[in-house]
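User: Can you write out an input/output pair for a complex, sequences first and structure second?

Assistant: Here is one pair. Inputs:
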Amino acid sequence: MTPVHILADEPPDQPPEVLLVDDDEVNLLLTAMALRERGFHITESSGGEHALQLLTDWAPDVIVLDAMMPGLDGFATCRRLRAMPGYENVPVLMLTGLDDDASITRAYQAGATDFFVKANQWSLLAGRLQYLLRASRTRIELERSQAKLARAQDLARMGSFDWRRAGPRGSGGSLMLSAQGLRVLGCGPGDNLGLRAILRLVQRGERRSVLRLLQGVVQHSSVLATDVPVSLHDGRQRIIHVEAEPEFNEHGHSVGYTGIVQDVTDRRVAEDRIRHLANFDSLTGLPNRRQLVWRMERAIEHARRLGHPCAFLMIDLDRFKIINDTLGHAAGDELLMEVAQRLRACVRHSEQVMEGALEAVGSRAHRTLEAVGRLGGDEFIALLPEIGDERDAQRVADRILEVMRDPVLVGGQECFVTASVGIAIFPRDGASVADLMRNSDVAMFSVKSQGKDASAIYSPQLAGRGREKLELESALHKAIERDELVLHYQPKVDVRSARMVGAEALMRWQRSGALVPPGDFIPLAEESGLILPLSEWALREAARQARIWQNSFGFADAIAVNLPSRVFERTQLIEQLHQNALAYGIPHRMVQLEITETGLMKELQSVIPALHQLKDINVEVAIDDFGTGYSSLAYLTTLPIAELKIDRSFVRDLGVTPQSSGIVTAIIAVARSLNLRVIGEGVENLRQMEVLHRLGCSLMQGFLFSQPIPPDDLERWLQQTVLPRRAPWIGQAGELEFGGPAARAAGGRPY
Amino acid sequence: MRDICGDGDQAASLSSPTFMLATSPAPQLQPPVLPRVLDEACLQRLHELDPQGANRVVERVLRAFEASLQRLLSQSAQALGRGDHEAVRHVVHTLKSSSASVGALELSRCCSEIENRLRAHQVDGLAEMLSGLDTEGERVLAAVRGMLPQ
């Protein structure tokens, strides 16, 4: 807050305004002249009535009144002006006679600020006026700062108090609350609220402990800081923060406390809300993952100590994604809320855990841990903190499957959802929360892979295909909805013009912080059939990225997506490509498909129709790893394909073994004769680039240019490497054919 | 507190050069006819309010005093006629301080005496005292007129 004295001591910019009232014109004239000479701005008035008239539309800084005047004298004038709004505190100096004590007394009674004996000693009068003005300014600043403080306290719902200890003979301890303090406690400014009355406001259950706390604090003269729940007279329940410090007299004895009371209810409610949000799922109101893990840890501790088993049931809805996709997210949410209600009814669900009681030996308080929680998406967990044996868990699982079988009304439509439940039991199936969650997940996933809508108890044999693989599969199953998949992009370049001509999208899986190499999950995905949703996702993501690049740097080529042959066999492929192009507003040709030569030849007959349909909608197809399979050249001539990608094994050996350059030459010749583009993959050094280029293939991709990188990095690569023509391969390629800067100018679009 | 005007050191004020109303560019004023009627030290203090005479302060004050004295003397006579002692008291109270301001110390002393008596409700001999006041008032009036330009 601004210190009052700074403002108060500052001389005002304007000369002080003085209203001088005297009926004697000689004195009026002389006093006015003398004061003007000393820097005052004087307004003269010859009588009380006239002066009051002036004051109705003008306010001087100080008023000088002659006491004895005909008509309205100084005393009456003073009394009248004090009654006028705004003039309660304006300084008034009363001019009295020399030996007129009665007038001095009357002056003060009439509300004058001070008196001055009439004389011609102008300097003394001027000095007195200066003093009155300074006192008045100080007073105004003080009032202003008090008003500010009161306002600030009101805003903060805060007030102050002052408590004096009872005297040594027990004579009256006293409590003074500021008007703001009284308001905090629901009282008016005039109310008298003693300590006893305040204690009666404290909610009954808390009264004893608050009193004990106060006694302890006072006894030790320590600082008081606590929150007290109160019930105010008007019935409002509030939480009041009390903070006070002891005061000591000159002998060092504590004489009382000064401090503040503040209504912190809103803050406490917000804190509780935050705590709730941190521990409970906002959609279903069930405990969330964090709260569940905490409960599970407690449950395991208890089970270990008391020697009983406990069970985790992993519950995953079947076909939830379809409902979400077809009926929309709002319907999906509605469904999840209904499912949450049903699941909650299957266990003895406790909203709150009796935390304090959990530690008591022999207590059954751990049963309050029992709950259903939502892990996220359509995954729920039921925690049974104490079971007799696994049949108890099985019974709960059966109940869950049973309640799910009733149709759920969502958006006015009946939906049928089933669930797959996996059960893991402590201590048999794991000793930690992580182990038990993983194993219940494995058991749940085994249900999924065997046709869903059932439950299974974990057993090591369940992981028939190898436990890790099962886990991986189970995790991959969730990868899409958890947004764990990403596409990285490797640019395709034309070394002749030194520009990017497209990019190949390569899938990456970010699983708990680490990047899983495609070799570790693509084969598994193909084996389990998960490759279908993964491919659908990749096509959609590539279309989305093409649109982003189109916007950010005018990208107009194609992003190539690798698809297994079985995706080509699916009738939905064409429809999906349509949808993606429509959804992201890009031409169909901006997404290109790659199929391996081996894959193509194996399923040739079933793939051919798709290839024709793709050609019809301008989606180009490239044959990947070309040269490794056993392509029938006869078929090749009839297939509607656009591009051959020379397998990296031949590129690697270029310039090393003569055979490799022979094969590459042959592939290039075939491509030329069939009017196909040809591109060399896996180009890692300048020598390979030169040879490929010399043999007639200028389109390439490989580490020499760029590794597969995240989309933002690719933009940066374009900006920092290709556009400024900074990479070693750029000069090299230009000189190869055109020999210098001319080629650079002729390069056209840089990507 | 000392007396309202001057220190009563008549000798000192009499031995100083005769006070002149040197108010250029105002026309030269006449020297006072009766120097003892108006105290020179008081007149000097008035003069100090406007040393260059640019604002004709002394002239304006004396003119105001002349008018007010004339009015007050007639007011006191009327009040006495009515027997309105409170009005008389008002007149002498006002005249007490304004006459002191211009150096009419004897007049101021008369006023003060009458005011004190009236405050104590001593009305015997009031007529005589007011008559004395009148005489002194006329003397002062003559002196003031003598100082003002014609």
